[in-house]
Design a protein that fits this description.
binds adenosine-5'-triphosphate, 4-stranded antiparallel beta sheet, 35% helix, Rossmann fold, 219 residues, 2 domains, alpha/beta
């Protein structure tokens, strides 16, 4: 059997990533995040956590200078535009489109070319069911609870078939019980789908739930 180099490098790889703001070195990081595992990045406010996610996703503000490489499943994407990278982002707020129904939000995420309209509808329905949201497809996102909105946001990002999940304080707006529930759901689904996760958080409980390595930019 041939040992294909790309296969040996499944997941998200950061090589010698350096991000500077003017003359200030914000961060230096090399890491390999295997499919279904997580890397948690912690550190004080202003240490560059969100900038790291922006660099990996391809939309780092030009105020920063960055070097190093980002690889996804062996493909170097450092110079590719965000849409060609196929990474999925989840932020503190669910950021659902308010003018689309819940189903519309899910359909919007499905890559073009993912089958007929009927097949796409079936994917959206399956996602609603998987998230325990059956029967809520016609609602406006604003008519859902915070926990339900968070689950729509998660299913929307998973339907986009990302090669990695980038999470920026994804649970911080949820109350304690929901927070724990969403942690379980998000990391279980990432493991199930074999997605590498890059998590930025202030909360050690998020890091615990994610498992895997923790990098502290403050030390
Ligand atoms: N567009 C920008 N132009 C100039 N400076 C910026 C810009 N965005 C962020 N910064 C600065 O860059 C530094 C790193 O910001 P970043 O948001 O990456 O930190 P962070 O660790 O995610 O912080 P927090 O935990 O508060 O979200 C901060 O000093 C911030 O003020």
């Amino acid at each position: 059997m041939t040992n294909h180099p790309a296969a040996a490098e499944a997941g998200l790889t950061l090589n010698d990533v350096e991000i500077r703001l003017g003359t200030r070195m914000l961060l230096r990081l090399s890491a390999a995040v295997a499919p279904g595992t997580a890397l948690t990045v912690m550190g004080p406010s202003g240490s560059g956590k969100s900038s790291l996610l922006a660099f990996v996703a391809g939309f780092l503000d030009p105020a920063f200078t960055a070097s190093g490489t980002v690889r996804l499943d062996g493909e170097t994407v450092t110079r590719k535009p965000p849409n060609a990278r196929r990474v999925g982002l989840l932020f503190q707020a669910p950021l659902l489109f308010p003018h689309l129904s819940v189903r519309g939000n899910l359909l919007f995420a499905i890559p073009s070319g993912a089958g007929s309209r009927q097949e796409r509808m079936a994917l959206a329905e399956a996602a609603l069911e998987e998230a325990g949201l059956d029967g809520l497809g016609d609602r406006d996102p604003a008519a859902l609870s915070g926990g339900q909105q968070a689950r729509v946001a998660l299913m929307r990002v998973l339907l986009s078939k990302p090669r990695a999940l980038l999470l920026d304080e994804p649970f911080s707006s949820l109350d304690a019980a929901l927070k724990e529930q969403m942690r379980q759901v998000v990391f279980a689904k990432a493991r199930e789908r074999g997605l590498p996760v890059l998590l930025v958080t202030h909360d050690p409980e998020d890091a615990r739930a994610a498992g895997g390595r923790i990098v502290d930019l403050g030390t």
